[in-house]
Specification:
The complex is a heterotrimer of chains A (about 260), B (about 300) and C (about 280).
Chain A: E1 2-11, E2 18-28, E3 33-37, H1 44-52, E4 59-64, E5 67-68, E6 76-79, H2 83-86, H3 93-103, H4 108-121, H5 137-150, E7 155-159, H6 167-184, E8 187-192, H7 195-201, E9 204-208, E10 213-220, H8 229-234, H9 236-253
Helix pairs in contact in A: 3-4, 3-5, 4-5, 7-9
Chain B: H1 3-10, H2 22-26, H3 43-70, H4 80-91, H5 95-127, H6 129-144, H7 150-158, H8 162-186, H9 190-198, H10 203-240, H11 246-255, H12 259-287, H13 289-300
Chain C: H1 22-25, H2 30-50, H3 62-72, H4 76-108, H5 111-124, H6 133-140, H7 144-168, H8 172-180, H9 185-222, H10 228-237, H11 241-269
The chains are: A alpha/beta (about 260), B mainly alpha (about 300), C mainly alpha (about 280).
């Protein structure tokens, strides 16, 4: 579904050129939920922007369903970390969700249906006519998720979407993502710096090295599909996986990991 | 004490350019916009106190003026009743249609043209860093020219007529609008811009839904400055060279020593300024309701 | 939360910050383009009348206007006019500033008294100061006091309102902190209230400085008090087109100097201040 091959990104600053991403290759199967985790400043956001078609890579390719991505593709939706800045403050919640559908020329009746369904799915039906800034942070991020869901993308990209919400809201939102993913069968790439979150959410976890970034490890999360904040996080397998990701990240931070080949799994 | 709450009531919501009143700043609750005021318990008492707040000082000032002018033999300060009589006689007559309405029409035309031109060019400049860098020093110079000096220039170029006066207003008012639009458009949030790209929002929709809305607080600030300027330019273009209009009438009264009439003209001009500013605030309140709410919410966090 | 916005550790300071799109990274060469812009503007100005696109009776070529300006700049009369204009500007601004600061701080810290003044202020503030022209003429004639009346009236409200915003912006936590450390009333004004208000005050001064020049020139133009404005009126009535343009360029230059000066002052006064506040209310 989503294929990244030999992706490299160098920020041009003349003599100060910075290689943010060196050589990234990975693939997401249809309907997979993959978490991307890496140490601070490892170029996760850069990578995501390249995948989203917001930024041209220096070399390498991104393919979505066999099509090369050069501009934001129509069947991809992105949820940003900065929910407050990614919602249109002058539009109601409903209009925020509906606007991209209007641009996609979705007929009016269908539009209303999609908006209602997606707001229902994130539990915000009651707040359709509020402005985003009248809602709490977690609810604002739900609006952004509803907007992405209503867009009916094949691939959903999420850039540390819960980094700025409090811990309890975060747990709720994580469950919401799992639930939406199961229901919609959408392919999800979820970027995070939180190891617990990566293991809890993902079917697979890709560990990135520190900058210049390569894929350091690719771990399959063999936890049951039904997950629960209490029992899953207590699961022994969860703890093991978390420890493994943690170790990889420590290695990446110390810079010893970049050269090491990805552990076979 | 109830005085605390009457304080906030007496500060009209229209007053202060959307900046926090003292009450708001001290208790930054994320108040949802457009809610009715709370508390109806002692409504009558409050209404009375509010009325007192609004009327006391103006009544006092007018009283003092009335007393002073009645007891002074100065020719230049007629008593309020004389001014009121002159006001009624002058402006509740066909002079209103001959002098005042044409002035206001020119003001509206000039302001509207300046707004179109300023916002249009401002968007163009704001969206292109290169064009902006090219034009910046020249704009910096052009906007520093005090607009009143354009009056004699426009008389040279267009003669003494309506189009001269409109031209003066346009060429004076366009700069604050233009420069504020540039600032607003330039500062489009990168996250929001990325969001729009991801969801396929581009072209005129992007301009309408994203760029102009995001820049609207700045654009409104520019329009506000321009409005004040437009009134000044309207008046002085008529004072400098004209045979009709409010500014002309006022100067005419002054030159013929028709003092109560002159005062009546000044009062009308003051009223025009006040009403236009109130109208502007009304429009601004509607256009920027979201912005006020957003700011209040951010302060509350 | 700041994780993604922080620069990667390997990045040298000042190089590629947050990736924002091509324009942000490859900034154009501003001084060069700006110079090109000025030269282009002058060439255009020179060419349009010379090519006969606009009659040079209406728009004399740039060279002629600049020559006229240069010639005037050698006369003492020109510099007297500049001096008169600047005197009206500076004196009016200073009077308005002092009055607005005194009244603003007093009423700002007495909210109950201030409540009685709000309606009056809201009525008087939007009154265009040019409405006072006839009164100024009757009372002061072409004296500099005419100019001052207009300048002070216009500038006072601008600064006064900003001071009120500033006083209102006083952080109660900071105030209480100062109290709890036993700072006296004067010390609190000096160390808490004044620094809070200063950015707002500077915004008011910046706006007022431009407006003061506008009204100073207006008074000279309409009333005929001495200054560049009157020179322009004289040049216009004698049909000296190039002179009118030259004097307009001079007022523009004066405006640029004032703008730059006020901005430099603002930066200097607020150099301790991390962000520019009160900007949106301007």
């Amino acid at each position: 579904m989503l294929k990244v091959t030999g992706l490299q990104k160098i920020y041009n600053g003349g003599a100060n050129a910075v290689e943010a991403v060196r050589d990234l290759t990975f693939e997401l199967g249809e309907g997979e939920l993959v978490c991307l985790v890496g140490p601070s400043g490892c170029g996760k956001t850069t990578l995501l922007k390249c995948i989203a078609g917001l930024m041209p890579p220096t070399s390498g390719t991104v393919e979505l369903a066999g099509q090369a991505v050069t501009a934001p593709p129509p069947d991809m939706a992105v949820v940003f970390q900065e929910y407050g800045r990614s919602l249109f403050a002058w539009m109601s919640v409903r209009d925020n969700v509906e606007l991209p559908l209007k641009e996609k020329k979705v007929p009016k009746g269908r539009r209303a249906e999609l908006v209602a369904e997606s707001l229902e799915a994130v539990g915000l039906t009651r707040f359709a006519d509020s402005y985003p800034w009248q809602l709490s942070g977690g609810m604002q991020q739900r609006v952004a998720i509803a907007r992405a869901v209503a867009y009916e993308p094949q691939v959903l990209l999420m850039d540390e979407p819960f980094a700025a919400v409090d811990a309890q809201t975060r747990a709720d939102l994580e469950d919401l993502i799992r639930q939406l993913w199961k229901r919609l069968g959408v392919t999800v790439l979820f970027v995070t710096h939180d190891i617990d979150e990566a293991v809890y959410l993902g079917e697979r976890v890709l560990v990135l090295s520190s900058s210049p970034t390569v894929v350091q490890d690719d771990i399959t999360v063999d936890l049951p599909v039904e997950r629960d904040q209490l029992t899953t996080r207590r699961d022994e397998r969860f703890t093991e996986l978390r420890a493994r990701v943690y170790a990889q990240i420590q290695q990446a931070k110390n810079g010893t990991g970049a050269a090491a080949p990805a552990a076979a799994h | 004490m109830s005085s605390q709450s009457t304080t906030s009531d007496a500060a009209p919501g229209t007053g202060a350019d959307g900046a926090p009143g003292p009450q708001e700043a001290q208790a930054p609750a994320p108040a949802p916009a457009g809610r009715p005021r709370r508390g109806t318990a002692s409504g009558a008492v409050r209404a009375g106190a509010k009325l007192l707040h609004v009327l006391l000082l103006p009544a006092l000032l007018i009283g003092v003026y009335a007393y002073a002018s009645a007891n002074s033999d100065s020719y230049y300060t007629p008593t309020p009743d004389l001014i009121a009589a002159a006001f009624a006689e002058l402006w509740f007559s066909e002079r209103f249609f001959a002098d005042v309405l044409p002035s206001l029409a020119r003001l509206a035309t000039g302001f509207a043209l300046a707004a179109l031109l300023g916002v249009g060019l401002g968007v163009l400049l704001g969206l292109s860093a290169r064009v902006r860098a090219l034009a910046e020093p020249v704009l910096e110079f052009l906007r520093a020219i005090p607009p009143p000096v354009l009056v004699p220039l426009m008389i040279l170029l267009a003669g003494v007529n309506d189009s001269m006066k409109v031209l003066v207003i346009v060429s004076g008012c366009v700069w604050p609008i233009l420069l504020n639009t540039v600032e607003g458009v330039r500062a489009v949030d990168p996250v929001l811009a990325d969001t729009a790209r991801c969801y396929g929002i581009h072209g005129t929709t992007r301009l309408r839904v994203l760029v102009l809305r995001l820049a609207s607080p700045q654009i409104m600030a520019g329009l506000r400055q321009a409005l004040a300027l437009a009134i000044i330019l309207m008046v002085i273009s008529e004072m400098f060279a004209s045979s009709s209009g409010l500014g002309f009438a006022i100067v005419q009264f002054q030159r013929t020593f028709a003092i109560p009439e002159m005062w009546a003209g000044m009062v009308l001009l003051g009223l025009v300024g006040f009403v236009l500013s109130a109208l502007f605030e009304l429009v601004e309140g509607r256009a920027l309701g979201w912005y006020r709410g957003l700011r209040a919410a951010n302060r509350g966090e | 939360m700041t994780e993604t916005t922080a620069p990667p550790p390997a990045v040298p300071v000042g190089a590629a910050r947050r990736p924002r799109g091509a324009a942000a990274r490859t900034g154009p060469n501003r001084p060069l383009l700006g110079t090109v812009g000025i030269v282009g503007f002058l060439v255009l100005w020179e060419a349009v009348p010379r090519l006969g696109l606009v009659s040079d009776r209406y728009l004399p070529p740039a060279s002629r206007v600049l020559a006229s300006l240069g010639q005037r700049a050698t006369t003492p009369q020109f510099w007297t006019a500049v001096g008169d204009t600047l005197t009206g500007w500076a004196l009016g601004l200073a009077i308005a500033l002092v009055a607005a600061v005194v009244l603003g701080f007093t009423l700002g810290s007495l909210p109950r008294v201030r409540a009685f003044t709000t309606s009056t202020v809201d009525f008087l503030r939007p009154i265009p100061s040019v409405a006072l022209i006839p009164l100024a003429v009757l009372m002061y004639g072409t004296d500099i006091r005419s100019t001052l009346l207009l300048v002070v009236y216009a500038c006072f409200w601008l600064i006064y309102i900003q001071v009120l915003y500033g006083v209102a912006d006083l952080d109660p936590v900071a105030e209480q902190t100062a109290r709890s450390y036993g700072l006296g009333r004067l010390a609190r004004i000096r160390h808490v209230l004044w620094p809070t208000t200063l950015p707002y005050l500077m915004t008011g001064v910046r706006l007022a400085a431009a407006v003061a020049l506008i009204l100073s020139i207006t008074a000279q133009l309409i009333i005929g008090s001495p200054g560049i404005g009157r020179e322009i009126a004289v040049a216009q009535s004698s049909g000296a087109v190039a002179s009118v343009y030259a004097l307009i360029v001079a007022t523009g230059a004066l405006g640029v100097v004032i703008n730059i000066g006020v901005r430099a002052l603002e930066r200097r006064v607020l150099r301790w201040h991390t962000s520019v506040r009160g900007e949106a209310t301007a």
